[in-house]
């Protein structure tokens, strides 16, 4: 039996910094809980309580939740609506897919004057003739039933059928109780016969589970409890064995940052984009860190032959070809894009040799002839023309015709 403990509630209150006294929303779904307890004493400020997909057979111990507005107990083993009169602020109640056959128990919700939405889909009582009309008359404060709006005409039509309607529903409830008692005895006998048939087998648990999942079963609370029991047993065997028998053994890959000789590896566990530039005097690493990631979750470590950046526990490491000056390395992050720039000066930077400017032959000859300076007249006609160009013949002005 799974109990509601303080540790379980604190685990589900991470969004409230593990404080349960001021908790306003609590989700305990799919925990195989079999009883509602302690919540009313520990979490009196609750406004939303989610208990769907458990094994709860009865509504109880909720009378202290005066601020509760939404209660979800869908897919449980509840057979009767009760003990909710003290929930003054209750506005929405979800009882989908339970085993409520006593439809007249909805009358206990008349004191919940703020109740506006009620869900009873999937319960045996919804198959009764006149089910919707009876609930509409029994709970005049409702605005929606099973997700469908209740109109004024619906209330008028239901009011005309009320006298004969309640008598018929009480008879159907009595028949349902008789069938439920017979079903309870029949299912219990089936479970006992099944356990006796596999009790002496060496592979008891495996054979019992196989037989249970392959046989036909009735839809009832006892079957749900058995299903939860076998599911927990299968999970426990998988946890004890360290693996699932239906799946191959998958070993977790171990992280290796260095080779056996001590050489650092390059790896990118966070799968972030980056740009690496090898300048003559430095290395530049532009790491595209996530824009909205807090800087406190990023750690940078620059060593002589590698740089390592840890992002939320995942390692980005880059091996360097040359040693760097770790004490002069810098790291900056953009407030706009979130990118991180790491500049690492090289320990032995490369020498940059500027190329010598080539002089034109004409300038060399002229400087040699002049002895390094400009002396005498300059022939301006040879400035634009080259030695390879042919000299244009002079034009004879006598051959040019007169203008008309």
UniProtKB/TrEMBL annotation:
SMART domains: LRR_SD22 (SM00365). This is Protein TILB homolog. Keywords: Cell projection, Cilium, Cytoplasm, Leucine-rich repeat, Repeat. It is found in: Cell projection, Cilium; Cytoplasm. Residues 237-346 form the Dynein axonemal assembly factor 11-like CS domain. Belongs to the tilB family. The keyword Membrane does not apply. PANTHER family: CILIA- AND FLAGELLA-ASSOCIATED PROTEIN 410-RELATED, LEUCINE RICH REPEAT PROTEIN. Signal peptide: none annotated. One of its GO terms (cellular component) is cytoplasm. Its main location: other. It comes from Anopheles gambiae. InterPro entries: CS_DNAAF11_C, Leu-rich_rpt, LRR_dom_sf. It comes from the Eukaryota. One of its GO terms (biological process) is outer dynein arm assembly.
